[in-house]
Design brief:
Number of strands: 0
Helix content: over 70%
Distance between the termini: 176 Å
Structural class: mainly alpha
Radius of gyration: 69 Å
């Protein structure tokens, strides 16, 4: 920090010794004038070298770059939103497709179960029919066997009756009668 007591003492001492001093000048310009001239010369030199146009061009170039970046960011955002919408649609479609597949699988399972029941019913019916046919065939075989036994028993009984009740004389009469009837 500056010690203000020293500064005020220096100011009082200067006031006691005549107080005013002469300001230095060169070519009729004091320090402030030279400073102003230097600033004016610097401004003139900058205008002569076209620094404002260069700075303006640089700023325009920078603005254009920023504008391109903003345009690119807007385009990327639109693309990202489009991709997001597309994937949301795909997710909805995938869920819908999964529901459709599930419904189709359930329908197919119902059809398979129905077909299996129908096939089982048909199989049972075929087995019943085959069993009935086997029973009918067995009945026919038993009836045929009974008929064969009955006919052979009847033939044996007829032979025995004929043998017992007919002799050679009776046979000759029967043969004669049969010939006469013809």
């Amino acid at each position: 920090m500056v010690d203000f007591t020293i500064l005020s003492a220096a100011a009082e001492a200067a006031a006691e010794h005549g107080g005013e001093h002469a300001e230095p000048t060169a070519l009729m310009l004091n320090a402030g004038g030279w400073w102003a001239m230097a600033v004016l010369a610097l401004i003139a030199l900058m205008i002569y070298l076209k620094v404002p146009q260069i700075v303006g061009a640089m700023l325009d170039k920078k603005i254009e770059g920023i504008r391109q970046n903003l345009d690119e960011a807007a385009t990327l955002r639109k693309e990202a939103e489009a991709l997001k919408a597309e994937y949301e649609q795909k997710v909805k479609n995938a869920a819908k497709h999964a529901e459709e597949l599930k419904a189709a699988a359930e329908e197919e399972a119902k059809a398979i179960v129905k077909k299996a029941k129908d096939d089982a019913t048909a199989l049972v019916a075929r087995h019943e029919k085959m069993a009935e046919e086997k029973i009918a065939a067995a009945e026919r075989a038993v009836v045929a066997e009974l008929r064969a036994k009955a006919s052979s028993a009847a033939a044996a009984a007829a032979r025995q009756l004929i043998a017992e009740g007919h002799g050679a004389d009776a046979d000759a009469k029967l043969v004669d009668k049969a010939i006469a009837d013809i």
